[in-house]
UniProtKB/TrEMBL annotation:
Keyword annotations of the record: Signal
InterPro entries (alphabetical): Divergent_DAC (IPR006837), Glyco_hydro/deAcase_b/a-brl (IPR011330)
Pfam families listed in its UniProt record: Polysacc_deac_2
Gene3D superfamilies noted in UniProt: Glycoside hydrolase/deacetylase
Signal peptide stretch: 1-20
PANTHER family the UniProt entry points to: DIVERGENT POLYSACCHARIDE DEACETYLASE SUPERFAMILY (PTHR30105:SF2), UNCHARACTERIZED YIBQ-RELATED (PTHR30105)
Signal found in the keyword field: yes
Name of this chain's protein: Polysaccharide deacetylase 2 family uncharacterized protein YibQ
Length: 257
């Protein structure tokens, strides 16, 4: 009897230890790369990286579908990189199917729906440029409604301090994420490496971190920085796709195209 109770006590003790371990918050890091879909510099090297990244793909471009499938097959998460009107800059920089504030409600809805269809495997959305459109409540309400109807989360890369996205996402119940750091807001390798170090310090402070880089002008520099820094990040945090930071998304079947 005594042996049995001893065994039982051990069982309780081990259970307590196991439970204690599950409550310890594990640090998580999501790395997002914007601007895929137009055969941009660094795309293939990036998609070949053997860690789960989240790639934001612009709709309706020459390699949108191809990049999305390639990313999915290599274990990365796909989101739609929706082009949206900036305060400054040319409309031609936005690419096809962009959301501008002069469009009707109906046209905005159609463009967002079409964009989602043009990027297979997408489970979320963020915006390309967008400092004007993301401050416009009428426009963003429609964008976020369509995200909700399609089960997509939204990543607000905060290209304006006047973003209405947090308020609307909460009201509509769209899961929202916000990035804290851009790797390549300045194009030099020196700056990109500096930002990479900054992210490492941020991981030490926070339980969840999100950082964004780009393919294109800075593509190959971002890839070589990631190759250097990912082993360091992995010592501190688990590298997860963006959806890994949203509780209700952890159990969703993402294999549907
Ligand atoms: Zn972009």
């Amino acid at each position: 009897m005594r042996v049995l109770s001893l065994v039982f006590s051990f069982f309780i003790l081990f259970n307590a230890i196991a439970n204690a371990q599950t409550v310890i918050p594990k640090k998580e890091l999501a790395i997002v790369i914007d601007d895929l879909g137009n055969n941009m510099k660094g795309t293939n090297e990036l998609l070949a990286l053997d860690v789960p990244l989240t790639v934001a793909i612009m709709p309706f471009l020459s390699t949108s579908t191809q990049d999305a499938s390639h990313a999915f097959e290599n274990g990365h998460e796909v989101i739609v990189h929706m082009p949206m009107e900036p305060i400054k800059g040319k409309k031609s920089w936005l690419g096809p199917g962009a959301i501008t504030t002069d469009l009707s409600d109906k046209e905005i809805r159609k463009r967002v729906e079409d964009a989602i269809k043009s990027v297979p495997y997408a489970v979320g959305m963020n915006h390309h440029m967008g400092s004007k459109a993301t401050a416009d409540e009428r426009v963003m309400r429609i964008v976020l409604e369509v995200c909700k109807e399609n089960g997509l989360y939204y990543l607000d890369s905060k290209t304006t301090g006047k973003t209405v996205i947090p308020k609307l996402a909460e009201e509509l119940g769209v899961p929202l994420l916000e990035n804290k750091l851009f790797f390549d807001d300045v194009y030099t390798l020196q700056h990109i490496l500096q930002q990479a170090k900054k992210l490492s310090e941020e991981i030490d402070r926070d339980d969840q971190s999100i950082a964004i880089g780009h393919v294109g002008v800075t593509g190959t520099k971002v890839v070589s920085m990631l190759k250097e820094f990912i082993p360091l990040y992995q010592q501190k945090a688990e590298l997860v796709p963006l959806s890994g930071l949203i509780n209700e998304y952890k159990y969703i079947d993402k294999s549907m195209p």
